Amino acid sequence: MTTVLLVDDDRPLLRALTIGIAAHGFEVATAEDGASAIRQAVKLHPDVILLDLGLPGISGLEVITSVRSWSDVPIIVLSARHQGPTKVTALDAGADDYVTKPFGMDELLARLRAVLRRRAPGDGAAIIEGGDLVIKLAERRVERDGELVHLTPKEWAAIAVLAKVPGSLVTQAELLEQVWGPGYEGESEYLRTLFARLRRKLEVEPSRPRHLITEPGIGYRLEMT
User: Which residue ranges in the chain fall short of pLDDT 70?
Assistant: First the structure.
């Protein structure tokens, strides 16, 4: 059974979400503060984490940073903070998705299923090589100079989309739909944040990328020559 770690200090909401998510076949564990969330993540190794940002003690952002230091488990942020900079900060810290409160259970479950689908192994067997990078689609693996590069599920999803058509332009709309799902067409800030992280991991000079090329206002392409 797929395990969901649900973290929120709003007890009525925590109970309601636990009941709603469990009713759709998920096993749900809960935590009401950041320290408990980290302990539960270490103990349970959940398949996905639903995380409120406004937690007592250790903040949600600190939880993301802590978990990302050892795990690529998908993290969906649940927050009443509507500001764009807050979303960017959470995504830059390593969150995979961001749902603004209030939200419907159907939307939350759709986001949950989407991150789990993106985490599933791919069917391809292609290996794309170029310069210092090797991308192994079947193994969901990226190597730089022979060393494994740790990628979050969202980072891997973006690389996989580009690696299937190396050298070709993939539009922002296509990437947003394939990496985040329908309804994200206007969230170009998500891509800017994600590709900034990828360049820091994959490029020798992130400010002068060789592999991850931006076509301003249009999209991105992967160069492996």
Answer: 81-84, 118-125
Q: Which domain holds residue 192?
A: 127-222
Q: How many domains does the chain have?
A: 2
Domain identity same for 68 and 135: no
Residue 107: count other Cβ atoms within 10 Å of its Cβ. 12
The residues near 189 (Cβ < 8 Å, ≥ 6 apart) are: 84, 87, 88
Q: Are residue 108 and residue 184 in the same domain, yes or no?
A: no
* Token pair recorded at residue 101: 């409160």
Give the pLDDT score at 97.
86
Q: Please check whether residues 168 and 98 belong to one and the same domain.
A: no
Reported as type and span, the H/E element at residue 144 is strand 141-144
Cα–Cα dist 61/91, whole Å = 10
- Residue 94 maps to which CATH number? 3.40.50.2300
CB 143 within 8 A of CB 163: no
Alpha carbon distance 3, 27 (integer Å): 5
Q: Please state, in angstroms and rounded to a whole number, the distance separating the CA atoms of residues 58 and 38.
A: 9
